[in-house]
Amino acid sequence: MKDRERRDLFPGALEMMVLRTLKRQPLHGYALAQHIKRTSKDLLQIEEGSLYPALQRLLKAELVKAEWSISSTNRRVRIYKLTAKGAKHLEQEVSRFEKMLEGITRVLASGES
Prior knowledge:
The chain has 5 helices and 3 strands; from the N terminus they run ααβααββα.
């Protein structure tokens, strides 16, 4: 049952959450994953094997930019920042997601009547 409870995110969900998180503030990868986990109240746990390829896709699409910095623990980290193009893309994706969610909610609610 545990495996059935663990579902993959729908395509684009991780990227949308990363962009939304970076809209608040620039962060390094580990901090991004921790923020998503904490904000979802531990319902979502983003693995490195998913997060870093997603960040690379966002970099390639110029939706985020990255620069090297030193963390509070004195380690070299790559800080990701949302670009203007990324902010616009996020707005479009959230709008599409909200419409999709509304449709799914209506279908699920129709079974109750």
